[in-house]
């Protein structure tokens, strides 16, 4: 990437690496293998996913308890840290229960049951009990982040190995960061354990940033104020206060403009769009999405690689808002445009998603013929993905709805052809994947973020 490298571009690489595994169903532990210079970048990505402006549907948590070498003691400390999240002494802005109650998402009151044996397996069960108390999380996972523990050079292999052997239930996932040159988690890759080995260029990105301005630890330097202001905007979404959020967004954009970096300005606009979406200020979310799209299109015209990433995310955000507001025709036009742009970018996943959502919106309107045709386009796009991604992504939902609508509007012989194609694309067990009990809600479900 060299001279064109920026920290924002490297961040969106991390987003893309996670997108590659987010929809896979089988894994339980994802390990990032990175160099020392890349730790902060991955940590920042995971921290943003913990916030309301995170991009993925899983709900992220973080355990800060350091690993001291004793697995049993570590597990006990994790229990204590978890219980502390719900204590009366917790700061108001970190009060999970109060935030859920305020948003109307708490189905029933929850108090951690610490009377059970303090094993890791029981901790996951307790977290699932908490998850069951929250509306709308039936299909989301709790993804638990364990920061790297390299300070003492202690191996965490046995603890993670034991946790995997005890069993990690559906609905719980773990992730951690490990160092290339000083591994603390050495486990064989398997369906349950996957490795993310990103190729970042943080050295070049940081060099370019330093070349523009040697800010060091200067708290009033624009680069440092930008980081602080991103955090300020994220904190505002917890308070559900539009006037306060509007004020902090304006500050963020002012600082971004000072930096005279189009990628940073575009990222600031997208953060603003996500933050407004998080507190259901949909009109403002659309405004900032439009601003992001405009800047991203300029970047694409200038041949900047990050432009398309911003464009597709902002377009998806705007379409999601229009979908939430049931402005189906406008949403369909955007999703169709997203699919067409993705074709030009050779991005089959977003081609599939664009057409899948067009099909779902037509299905909601009762226009089954058009819906079926869109679902076929989505499946055709998904056929360019690997079989593993097809089996563990929204491809299966498109397949279910294609069958569901097609059986109402097409002849049986046409459906036999589609079924044969699904077997080729998904394997011999395609019926279990596409027509199992888990798919029965597909015809009535929209993808949405619960905490943002």
Walk me through the topology:
Layout: H1 7-22, E1 29-34, H2 39-50, E2 59-62, H3 71-84, H4 96-102, H5 120-132, E3 142-146, H6 157-166, E4 172-179, E5 193-196, H7 202-212, H8 222-239, H9 242-259, H10 262-278, H11 282-301, H12 306-324, H13 328-344, H14 348-365, H15 368-382, H16 387-391, H17 395-409, H18 412-426, H19 430-435
Parallel strand pairs: 1-4, 1-5, 2-3, 3-4
Helix pairs in contact: 1-2, 8-9, 8-10, 9-10, 10-11, 10-12, 11-12, 12-13, 13-14, 14-15, 14-17, 15-17, 17-18
Short overview:
This protein is mainly alpha-helical and 452 residues long. 59% of the residues lie in helices and 6% in strands. The longest helix is centred in the middle third of the chain and has 20 residues, at 282-301.
Number of strands: 5
The strands making up the biggest β-sheet line up spatially as 2-3-4-1-5
Low-confidence stretches: 1-5, 202-220, 444-452
Q: Overall pLDDT, averaged? A: 83
Shape descriptor reads: globular
* Helical run tally: 19
Percent of residues in helical segments? 55-70%
Order of helices and strands: HEHEHHHEHEEHHHHHHHHHHHHH
Structural class: mainly alpha
The CA-CA distance between the termini, in Å, is: 32 Å
| Beta-strand content bin | 5-15%
Question: What Rg, in angstroms, do the CA atoms define?
Answer: 23 Å
State the oligomer.
single chain
Largest sheet composition? 5 strands, parallel
């Amino acid at each position: 990437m060299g001279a064109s490298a920026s920290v924002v571009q490297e961040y969106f690489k991390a987003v893309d690496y996670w997108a590659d595994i987010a929809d896979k169903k089988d894994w339980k532990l994802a390990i990032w293998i990175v160099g020392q210079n890349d730790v902060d970048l991955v940590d920042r990505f995971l921290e943003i996913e913990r916030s309301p402006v995170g991009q993925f549907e899983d709900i992220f948590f973080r355990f800060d308890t350091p690993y001291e070498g004793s697995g049993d003691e570590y597990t006990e400390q994790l229990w204590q840290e978890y219980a502390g999240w719900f204590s009366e002494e917790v700061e108001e802005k970190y009060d999970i229960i109060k935030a859920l109650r305020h948003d109307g998402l708490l189905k029933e009151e929850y108090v951690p049951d610490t009377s059970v044996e303090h094993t890791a397996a029981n901790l996951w069960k307790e977290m699932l009990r908490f998850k069951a108390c929250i509306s709308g999380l039936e299909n989301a996972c709790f993804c638990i982040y364990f920061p790297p523990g390299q300070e003492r050079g202690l191996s965490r292999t046995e603890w993670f190995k034991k946790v995997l052997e005890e069993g990690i239930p559906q609905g719980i996932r773990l992730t951690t960061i490990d160092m290339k040159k000083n591994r603390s988690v050495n486990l064989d890759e398997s369906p349950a354990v996957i490795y993310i080995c990103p190729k970042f260029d943080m050295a070049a990105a940081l060099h370019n940033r330093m070349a523009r301005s040697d800010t060091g630890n200067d708290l009033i330097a624009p680069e440092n104020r930008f980081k602080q202001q991103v955090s300020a905007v994220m904190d505002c979404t917890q308070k559900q206060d539009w006037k306060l959020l509007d004020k902090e967004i304006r500050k963020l954009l002012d600082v971004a403009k000072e930096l005279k970096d189009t990628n940073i300005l575009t990222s600031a606009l997208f953060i603003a769009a996500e933050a407004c979406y998080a507190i259901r200020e949909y009109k403002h979310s659309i405004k900032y999405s439009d601003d992001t799209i405009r800047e991203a299109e300029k970047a694409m015209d200038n041949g900047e690689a990050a432009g398309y990433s911003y464009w597709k995310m902002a377009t998806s955000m705007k379409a999601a808002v229009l979908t939430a507001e049931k402005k189906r025709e406008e949403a369909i036009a955007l999703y169709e445009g997203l699919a067409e742009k993705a074709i030009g970018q050779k991005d089959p996943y977003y081609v599939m998603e664009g057409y899948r959502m067009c099909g779902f919106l037509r299905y909601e309107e009762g226009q089954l013929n058009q819906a079926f045709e869109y679902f076929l386009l989505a499946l055709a796009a998904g056929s360019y993905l690997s079989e593993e991604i097809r089996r563990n992504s929204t491809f299966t939902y498109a397949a279910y709805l294609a069958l569901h609508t097609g059986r109402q509007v097409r002849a049986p012989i046409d459906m036999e052809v589609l079924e044969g194609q699904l077997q080729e694309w998904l394997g011999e067990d395609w019926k279990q994947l596409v027509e199992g009990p888990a798919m029965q809600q597909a015809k009535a479900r929209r993808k949405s973020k619960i905490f943002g």
